[in-house]
Specification:
The structure holds 2 protein chains of 2 kinds.
Chain A: H1 4-32, E1 35-36, E2 44-45, H2 49-56, H3 58-90, H4 96-104, H5 111-121, H6 128-135, H7 152-157, H8 164-175, H9 180-188, H10 193-204, H11 206-222, H12 225-230, H13 242-251, H14 256-285
Antiparallel strand pairs in A: 1-2
Helix pairs in contact in A: 2-14, 3-8, 3-11, 4-8, 8-11, 11-14, 13-14
Chain B: H1 2-28, H2 33-38, H3 50-58, H4 61-89, H5 97-105, H6 116-125, H7 132-155, H8 160-168, H9 173-184, H10 186-202, H11 205-209, H12 219-222, H13 234-264
Helix pairs in contact in B: 3-13, 4-7, 4-10, 7-10, 8-9, 10-13
Classes of the chains: A mainly alpha, B mainly alpha.
Chain lengths: 286, 269
Amino acid sequence: MASRRNIALYLVPAVALVTVFLVLPLVVVAILSTTRWVGVGTPEPVGFDNFSHLLTDPAFRRALANTVLWVVVGTVVHTPLCVLVALVVARRPRGWRFFRTAFFVPNVISATALALLWYFVFHVSLGPLNTLLRAAGLDDWARAWLSDPSTALGATMTPWVVYVGFGMVLFLTQISTIPREYYEAAQLDGASGLRQDLHITIPLIRRAIALQVLFVVGYALRSFEYPFIMTSGGPADSTMTLSLYIYRQMMTANQYGLSMAAGVVTLVVGIVLTALIFLGLRRAER
Amino acid sequence: MLGKIARWSVLVVFTLITLAPLLWLVLSSFKTDAELFGNPFGLPASWSFVNYQDALDAHPLLLFLRNSFVVALLSSVLIIVAGLLASYALMHQFRLSRFTFGFLLFGILLPVNALMTPIFFLVNMMGLYNNVLGVALVYAGLFFPLGFLVIKSYMDTTPMEILEAARVDGASFHRIFRSIVAPLSAPGAVTAGIFLMITAWNELLFASILTQDASAQTVQVGVRYFLTAYSANYPVAFAATVMAIAPTVVIYMVLSERIVDAMTAGSLK
């Protein structure tokens, strides 16, 4: 019989995993974010000092601003690109299965490997990018992409374009649920392919678009590999991200209280942005 | 006609963006240092595996690969077992079933990197710092919601009539799980497993904060040794990178449909 005891027994491993590695760290990060602690001895309570320090730390402010920028670029540049590719593939041109499979490939490759590759692409003296520019006679354009504060952030964000396949698959999945009759009716009315895309497909995949924006937020908050490997957050912290800031306070500065306070801010930013997306979706569905 | 040209240009441009860098990486891994800089975009003069041999000699790459495999396998198995058991428990209605479902899933929306500091201390306190077991357990916890979602969505398609019939025949709670629900959910568990192994294999941040030397470091951590500011032999570094990504790319080539499904599964529900 499905006794209460049996049900509880089957839930033990899952509840244990979530409690130990998600709930407990959440509690600890919240409590220790209000202390000063170097890793040994007793954490010293300092109230909200860590948070006020974060707000005045240029590196942290830069990390927050960059995260917002990642979210904005992801929403207004990356997501429309994903929609564009999905709309093209959804028409099932010759070889569409190949394209769908190929575009998704970068999503199964480690960001570490791709970041190492892009690090080399942007390398000042050896990188293929500068080689190409010089070969094209554009010597003025060739530069130290990763150590120039005006280009470093752009260089660490550029590799993002390879992830269009993920959004594309989300959109294709939802496009495949749209009834054929909608398009047939539109065709009888003489609507062009572009009009069908704009007035039928895009409104009907708004759930998938909201979900993609949710992934964009998650990616922006987790962003670590590209700045870590390509620039280490430099030059002058211009490519800093929240994850990299937490990492640095913890591994290099041993400022554990501060690092946990930065973690709390990251969580709060994540919760706020997620709530905004859900609110936006609810309005769009009305 | 114009639309057709526009559509094909989109396809060609994105094929170049996604595949050209990878192709270039593989080609470059066969070149000599001089060739890489003299002829960066051509084919290598000879297809010799000397860079690959050098990569294996320079750092304990096989050990890194083994650690990655152990961590990926162990964390995925833990998640699958815990996920199957919990999904089965949640097929039954009880007072807190909705709450429990939410509790097991809420982590999917968390930016878990924010938890790296407490998790670092937690693993240290468990005595599992610089130990593949520590990394595997952390992955099992952090990625559990992802795997659970895939397994549960699959298990929920099991027809309730089969369970009812088994109950009428006198099969016990455990028996129904072992002989009916678990085997029927195997495809979902395999899909989750492939997806989880790829995710674990590719993880860098937690692997690097929880380990210290080659005895526990994964290949994502180890591959960085090949590109330091002072000693960089790029073709050898590329050979190491190719070995680090080959397993996931090969699995993807064989099982692309399943992996695409898993990585986007349940997300539209």
